[in-house]
Amino acid sequence: MNSLHDPESREASRLDALHQLELLDTAPSEAFDRITRMAAQLFQLPIAAVSLTDVDRQWFKSKVGVEHNAIPRLKAPCAAVAESGTLLAVPDLLEDACFRDSPLAESGIRFYLGAPLTTKAGHCLGAMCVLGTEPRAVTEAERTTLTDLAAMVMAQVELQHALGRIDPLSGLPNRNQFASDMLDLRIVAAEGEPQLAALVSLASPEQLSDAMRVMGSAWLDEVVRTAVPALRRLAGEGKVYHVGTTQFAFFAPLGASLVRFSGTLLAWLGERAPNGQAGFLTSATVGLVRFAVGQDAPLDVLRNLHSAAHDARESESGLRVYSAEQDALYRRRFWLIGELGRALERPDELHLAFQPKMSLKDGSCTGVEALLRWNHPEAGMIPPGEFVPIIESTSLARATTEWVLEAAMRQLVAWHAAGVALQVAVNVSAVNLEEPDFCERVLEGLARHALPAACLALELTESALMRKPKAAHDTMERLAQAGVNIAIDDFGTGYSSLAYLQDMPADVVKIDQSFVRGMENDERTRALVTTMIKLSHDLGHRVVAEGVETSGVAQLLREAGCDEAQGYYYARPMVPALLAEWLAQCAA
């Protein structure tokens, strides 16, 4: 076992402290050069330097009267200062048994005075030194002066280090220090040894946003300052790291079990009483990550901690252990966002498939719904159920709807030229309804392609309509007045408010497939669908049933007075060429 009194261990710790400061081989700094020039002037000597003792060299962070950046460590007086941690005065190198045959003496240096550069933890990094070409005695006042200058150098070192390692608000070490300390675990633990880290998130982004809109940034500062003492108690003897706006990380004691450590954190969450306004406006969560000492990258561990703490918001306990499987889903989602943005600019990856809508009265095809399909060059066909929900939650909504509308209109032009009269329905997101120029863009596209407005239908879900009802109503009203058909999609799964259904200028109500598929085997569902159909008719809407897969369901819908049906019983979504063949077969 290593001992602090063992010279090899002490030197290893000293070198580690030096390398952590990230001073070696850095650019010159005026802050250090100013002190070095002062030393040369005060001692009236031609040479002064801030010399750092590395494994086999003396590297000069700052220098006066020296051309080279480093000299060998062997027989260098500064190395002796670093090893002893004490001031060293050599009046005449040629008269000193240790240094008479040193490289410095051979270069003509006769006088050396060096004061140790010592960290608060007691590690000597090197020396603040002055040198001359003539022998010289050293006074006590000169010893004190050089010691003071060395202290000034260390103050500058610690200041620069703190600027990149300490959060100014909480006073806690930041994520840079977390990463550094995580690597240092290799000193006290075996390579690959399992270890635990925790991240406490004091509030969700939504909670922070809502509270700061009312109370401002001073409130956030108070949340952080108030939390620090409790988090230090929770971390015990370990450090607490301020790694995010309201996020704090720390390591479990070496050898701690997941069960015991989780129990400690859960107890803290359970006992955390509201403290002032912040306690009532925010809720804390904890993420836990298991990692291997010396093998997992610190920034990967931090990312996993953030992920686990975010997932914990869906947990009743408020604590979640990092799941690689769940993380893979998030990474896949992130990948999909980037790839879809790229695909929208390429002509060969995205295409539309069209699913027919059938009249339940005469069996004719009354129109088609345009459905986006994605054939990725490497991943192959990506299911719509995987990428479509992502669109509404990102800035891709506008570009995607624009792409689909343009492709649908081009197809309508082709069909009209071939003598095929079909209405095409396009799905529109809540984000599109909030775009101030959405109506103008739709009508401009119809005019540019010389298409009548009635050939286009826009399908909007209940949840989209209710996100900003007034904006949605105004947009729908203008489109409806221009002749564009409006359909309320997935009816029954959202708000199902009679007030909005009565007020919205919709032509069609589409009953969601979750109700339609259960009609054959559930009388209550059948009664509910029948009521939906009658209610929609009473309000002046046509009704389309989605997800029709059997003749029995089709017959029940016909008996209930439903106008149209859509589903696999009639046809799956098809590309235009296959749809043309299908239409020809229906007409035969």
From TrEMBL:
Residue ranges annotated for the EAL domain, each copy included: 333-587
A GO term, aspect molecular function: cyclic-guanylate-specific phosphodiesterase activity
Domain of life (superkingdom): Bacteria
Pfam families in the record: EAL, GAF
UniProt protein name: EAL domain-containing protein
Species for this entry: Telluria aromaticivorans
